[in-house]
Write a structure and sequence with these properties.
Helices cover 76% and strands 0% of the residues. It is mainly alpha-helical and 451 residues long. It folds into 2 domains: 1-235, no CATH class; 237-250 and 265-451, no CATH class. α2 crosses α8 (215-235), α12 runs antiparallel to α13 and α16 packs antiparallel against α17 (389-415). It is globular.
């Protein structure tokens, strides 16, 4: 895959395509697993492996990386841009140290507690617990790779890295299943490609970072990052909170697998929206470019709306038809969950959090996250009690996401005098949101009770 220069891709689209590649590979894996010899319970163990690793790491990885982006070259500790002789960045090296320390802490803590946790009524046992902890130790720091390329304006390298490693990952995960092997061999394959990524990261650190440990910068990084860690833990944990509720209430690995296969936002929406948001963070850290950056955010989000809303509506029309055909007949249950998660396009394509994080107002996003959590758990339990089953849990997630974005937008308007129309194409957004809601109601006239 040969891409030189940035003629065909910039940092924003490079990161968006990378995230899309990542999702596509796991989608292909999911399809292969359901078409092969694996039972729903075995697939549930694989999903629990991915679910557990994500639940234990996503919040602090996201918080540390998001706080690094506005600090890069714009912090109190290193006033000069990197090393004047080599152009290497001590900020990247210290971010790597923080990620590694968090990973190591979780690795040690996990080994000390592994005999005292359980899922699916397997007392004192979690599927592949030792491999899970090793995966967490290796995989968390490698999330820095694509952002090293982004911060150094190597957008084409993001695509090359993604294409090479995800292609190998696909082969290593599905080859054992196609050969009739047990699911644990796919876990070994995932660990193998993660080790390759770790070596890739070390090579990048030698090239782009200055190996200088700075406690002062780490404190500055954590001061900005801890509200984002809390925010990500609460706000971004909706899918994990939902999964914990489902596994606790129903205690059925097959039902958990059905929920997990449905509880996926339409990938283009989630990945392209997150890619745009993260890629824009460094631009909002420059005070003199706020208006210019908001105009750019508004333009890029409008382009996403013209692409993503129509595609989402088409997908919604065919969801109940293609789910049992794409996976397996019993996975028709997942379709109702996916339809509700598809509605998350409405709050996803509004980006007040991007402006707030870029301006280092991270405590405000943390308050919004607390509001989300305070509503999500009781509302999810109420939905189950009222007879909406696992679909009701997804509906509760949609409601709290909307409330959170309304709060953040209101803060920008009232406190910072930034109107929604400054960064949102309001008319286009409202029209598309209404149309999407109408399509949802036409396709799913009643939320089906799946208990």
């Amino acid at each position: 895959m040969k891409l030189k220069g940035t003629k065909f891709v910039d940092n924003i689209s490079g990161l968006q395509i990378f995230q899309l590649l990542k999702f596509t590979i796991f989608l292909i894996v999911s399809i292969v697993f359901t078409k092969g010899h694996l039972t729903s319970a075995e697939i549930g163990k694989w999903e629990m492996f991915l679910f557990s690793s994500g639940m234990l790491t996503f919040f602090w990885v996201t918080g540390l990386i998001q706080s690094l982006l506005p600090l890069y070259h714009r912090n109190r500790t290193y006033r000069k841009i990197g090393d004047p002789n080599t152009g290497k960045s001590p900020e990247i090296f210290n971010a790597f140290i923080l990620l590694t320390v968090f990973s190591l802490f979780l690795f040690v803590l996990g080994h000390s507690l592994k005999g005292h946790v359980s899922v699916f009524r397997l007392s004192g046992n979690v599927p592949f617990i030792n491999l899970l902890l090793l995966y967490i130790l290796l995989s968390s720091p490698v999330c820095l790779i694509e952002y090293i390329y982004l911060l150094n304006n190597r957008s084409h390298r993001i695509l090359q890295y993604g294409f090479y490693t995800f292609s190998v990952q696909l082969v290593l995960i599905i080859a054992p299943i196609l050969a009739g092997k047990d699911i644990i061999w796919s876990v070994y394959g995932l660990l193998a490609i993660t080790l390759v990524r770790w070596i890739w990261l070390i090579i990048l650190l030698r090239r782009y970072s200055k190996p200088e440990i700075s406690v002062k910068f780490m404190k500055e990084h954590m001061y900005l990052g801890w509200p984002l860690i809390i925010t990500s833990l609460i706000s971004g944990s909706a899918q994990y909170v939902d999964g914990v509720i489902i596994s606790s209430v129903y205690r059925d690995p097959a039902l958990f697998a059905w929920f997990r296969y449905g509880a996926k936002e339409f990938p283009l929406v989630l990945l392209l929206a997150n890619g745009l948001s993260n890629a824009m963070l460094p631009e909002f850290s420059v005070r003199g470019k706020i208006r210019e950056s908001m105009a750019k955010l508004k333009l890029r989000s409008e382009k996403l709306m013209h692409l993503l809303f129509p595609v989402t509506m088409v997908i919604m029309f065919f969801t109940r038809w293609f789910y049992p055909r794409l996976f397996a007949p019993e996975f028709h249950i997942s379709a109702g969950v996916f339809l509700v998660y598809a509605l998350l396009i409405i709050p996803r394509l509004v980006f007040p959090q991007t402006i707030l994080i870029g301006r280092r107002k991270t405590r405000i996003t943390m308050i919004a996250a607390v509001i989300e959590l305070g509503l999500n758990i009781p509302l999810s339990l109420l939905m189950i009690r009222w007879g909406y089953g696992i679909v009701g849990v997804a509906l509760a997630t949609f409601i709290v996401y909307c409330v959170s974005k309304i709060y953040l937008s209101a803060y920008l308007w009232i406190k910072l005098k930034i109107k929604p129309s400054d960064y949102i194409p309001v008319k286009i957004f409202l029209i598309y949101s209404l149309l999407t809601t109408v399509v949802f109601l036409l396709v799913d006239r009643r939320i089906i009770d799946i208990q």
